[in-house]
Amino acid sequence: MTFLARPAHVLFRALWNRLPISLQSGLIYLGAPKVTMGVCAVIADAQGRLLLVHHTLRHRGWDLPGGLMRRHEDPASAVAREVEEELGVRATVGPVLHVDNALARRHVTIFYQVWIAGEPRHDLETDGHRYVTLDEYPQIKGVEAATWVQKHLLPAMRTEEPR
What we know:
alpha+beta, Nucleoside Triphosphate Pyrophosphohydrolase, 2 domains, 4-stranded mixed β-sheet, 3-stranded antiparallel β-sheet, 5 helices, 31% helix, elongated
């Protein structure tokens, strides 16, 4: 069998293996699907109410604090940065509560439990905040969102702040 008579996948593999690793990595990067990464802070007060912020820049509305990760940013650092940017307070980042993969949008969101010290303030990204009970949540975010929070976030939450 001559070299050109071999099946295409065999020829491809033979050529691929001759490429430098750096070129292989670059080609894989160019051909791979890209995703965006986001983080959200799940913050509860002593009564178990969840903190929502009213965003002014992105989708405009009440939601959990959070946003997009920067290139080469570690997710826990990103959620702490977002909390400080949106609420003006320092965050203690706890465990990951849930990871959501929105396939159609090619977006992954990591939800962290977060504790804050101090009273939240507002800036350009937010113009309000409020703590809501699970009974109030459906009126603000809808029944489907409230069900999602009860199923994915609340069961994983800890009551004590990590030391």
